[in-house]
Amino acid sequence: GGSAAALLSTSPSVASCEKKKVEAPPVGDPFPLQPPKNKEVVGPKGIPSRAEQIRRLKSSSKQGDDDQYDVLVIGGGATGAGIAFDAATRSNLPSGLKVACIERGDFASETSSRSTKLIWAGIKYLASASAALLSWDLLTSPVTTVKDFYSEFSMVFNCHQERKYMLDKQQHLTNWVPIVCPFTEWNIWPPPFGHPIFSFFPVLAPAVFKFYDALSQFTCPPSYIMTKKEARTKFPQLSDQDIKYCAVFYEGQHNDARTNIAIALSAAEKGAHIANYVEMTEGIFDEDSGKVIGVKAQDRISGETFEIYAKNIIFAGGPFTDKLRSKEDKEGGTVPPAVQGASGSHIVLPGYFAPKDMGLLDYNTSDGRFLFFLPWQGSVIVGTTDKKCDAETLPYPPEEEIQWMMKEVEKYLSNDLKVRRSDVLSAWRGWRPLAADPHAPPGGQVSRDHVISKNPSSGVTFIAGGKWTTWREMAEDVLDKVLGDKAGTCNTLDIKLHGGEGYHKSLSTQLIQKYGVSEEVANHLVKTYGGRVWEVVEKCKPTGKQWPRYGVQLVEGYPYIEAEIRFACQEYACTIEDVLSRRTRLAFLNSEAAQEALPRVADIMAEELGWNKAAKKEQIKCAQKYLAAYGGRIPYEDGVALRFLAHEDAMDMFREIDRDGSGFIDPQELKEIATRLGNPLDDKQLKELFRTIDTDKNGKISADEFVAWINAEQSKNDVKRYLHATATVIFEEIDTDQSGFLDKAELKAVTVRLGEDFTDKEIKKIFREMDTDKDGKISLQEFIAWMDKENDKTGFRKLLASNMQDNNMQGAWLDEKTPKGVTIKRKYTNSGSFLG
């Protein structure tokens, strides 16, 4: 009736949007496990189709040198695709290199699509290197300190050269963006980077940025000083209360996923056999030497398995490289760790929070990390630099990171601009690999940049570390090391990437004149496809409007058009998520807009790829689950652990329910939100709930009344009872022998049934945590107490909670995953609605 449980179908911090039910972030494999068996689609002009690439990959053999690949790359991110591109374009060899590259997901599906979108030359590393050089270490360990400084400085210098290459040679993919450093005081304490000299950074900044320009031989737009008055004009969103002045410098910017796809397609165009959704399942070992001579692979689209043989194998798995390395051990043993993940979280805000052509850098945040505030694709990205933690496949960042970024960025914004939680259109997290060489001799120098290491036992080489900016340099370095005197000449510095030929600055104007597309769409298409844009617009259909005449938009407010989906299928897009996350960037820009576009994307891809109804349904389900892993306007919780609302969270919910913006909630709006949350109320329940919240009995619910109700002790108790009932249902489903207790075998079995086979070690750890009375079995009370805890290092609670929320009926969530012949009898609850 009047309880919180009558309204909420998830934890109290979870709300819903009109076309999107917000659920806990999913866990597990994001890629479809049931092969959709897409039909063959021709590739872009001059490039083989994906199906043809698979046929070519199958043709390798161990019979002779001519049948084997010279280089096989595992990983299709920026580095892996870059290696394939470099190898396919080498010259001064008796014959060209035979090159293959496979990627288990889509190109750029992991780290390479989740960056801050900068091609930056490393101002942070220049500062940290200087701080280290000017420390006491210079007196106690002068040789080591100078060597470390030289190594770091060399890395920054190389970053400048690679940035110059990208901004000069790949103008169809990149642009310069000015970045403001606002200074509110002349002396900063505590100082950035922990060094006293940086307390004077506001005074030194103009000279520092000029030196930064010099590292690029002044080929970048020059840094400059912006007065307080100029800042008010050029960056009106800035708070001008305490600003002394602003220093402005330039970095490169790009659409990272598109750049990665352009690299992969360039490799294909130059003859490399490259395919996405092909996974290495295990190594093939030579019987005599024990070295890896090939891999067993599975095409995750057709389901076929085949073998690929190569003389040289390179792992380029980014933060997941160690998982690949475990497959090069013939005995299947553990490998010494070499790569640690460092996450960078990002949120996307509406474009009005910043000028369309100017960003901001906070170099001195509360925890010492850099924070970027950048215009991108019509929106504003707020992003952090590295925070060490284990890498994950799905992109959702912790709520505390989102709240931290909102708090940090507000200190520079005008008091008129408040960053609300509901302003967060999307949120994601990516992991950069931090690497060390596990095969280096004791006392060997530790690399401050990327690491290249060859396993002497298996013969496999891996490369990890580095930055987006240095993808080309990394590819060149690893091939030179692997191929030795047979490396030939690297030519990538002289080659434009896919789309570069035919690109010029008047291209968007020609597009508008010939096809009658809108200016916004034309600019987007040109900066995405470059000279290949004509292949896209040829697929445009008339809008039926006087203007624009062509280019049916996918979703209102964004320049993506339906023709891009059809062209994406030619560019090896295999799933709906490929299109929503990387071929367009909708999921990264606005997770709700991506959900809105999903049905139309599914319809078009089903036409292009020949999906039947079952395949289309499976694709939609997989895409929905992946899209649910992006953050949005409403914060996620894990779905079982209880978290009560902060005031701003409650206000976000109030504004979401108050659809007409009147400042009050009426009975109809309350009824609508209950229906949208999947728990419709009858008239009697609605009246009782409304009377409970409307404490002054004036027939409308104010914001104060709503916040008081949602945080009332009775509401908290109702929600807690609901969550405990949820935990009870989960307990029953795991307890397959109906003993009233859980054992290790049942815990193990449920992970398998949910598609995540936890190790015995992980199961033992979970069991020990639950079994608080140490009697060798887990009671219902122990299970509920464990589910209430916030700590979830293994991800087991999230696994249970997310799958529970995928199915809105108690007693139904595991039915389809339960082995045949096993009947579930429920002792504690009845099947049916969560709320009975």
Structural commentary:
The strands form six sheets. Strands 5, 6, 7, 8, 14, 15, 16, 17, 18 and 19 form a ten-stranded mixed beta sheet that branches. A six-stranded mixed beta sheet has the order 9-4-3-13-21-20. α3 (78-88) runs parallel beside α9 (256-269) and α25 (713-734) crosses α28. With 836 residues, it is α+β, with helices and mostly antiparallel strands. The protein contains 29 helices and 25 strands. The N and C termini lie close together (12 Å). β11 and β12 (305-309) form a beta hairpin.
Characteristic terms for this protein:
alpha+beta; single chain; 836 residues; 6-stranded mixed β-sheet; globular; 29 helices
Sum this structure up briefly.
The chain is of the alpha+beta class.
What is the secondary structure topology, with strand pairs?
Elements: H1 4-7, E1 16-17, E2 20-21, H2 50-58, E3 71-74, H3 78-88, E4 99-102, E5 118-119, H4 123-133, H5 137-140, H6 142-169, E6 174-183, H7 201-214, E7 224-227, H8 228-234, E8 245-254, H9 256-269, E9 273-275, E10 278-285, E11 292-299, E12 305-309, E13 313-315, H10 321-325, E14 339-349, E15 359-362, E16 371-376, E17 379-384, E18 387-388, H11 399-410, E19 426-435, E20 451-454, E21 461-464, H12 471-483, H13 507-515, H14 519-529, H15 533-537, H16 562-570, H17 576-583, H18 586-589, H19 591-609, H20 613-627, H21 647-657, E22 664-665, H22 667-676, H23 683-693, E23 701-702, H24 703-710, H25 713-734, H26 744-753, H27 760-770, H28 780-788, H29 796-806, E24 809-810, E25 832-833
Parallel strand pairs: 3-4, 3-13, 4-9, 6-15, 13-21
Antiparallel strand pairs: 1-2, 5-8, 6-8, 7-8, 10-11, 11-12, 14-17, 14-18, 14-19, 15-16, 16-17, 20-21, 22-23, 24-25
Helix pairs in contact: 3-9, 3-12, 4-6, 13-14, 16-19, 17-19, 19-20, 21-24, 25-28
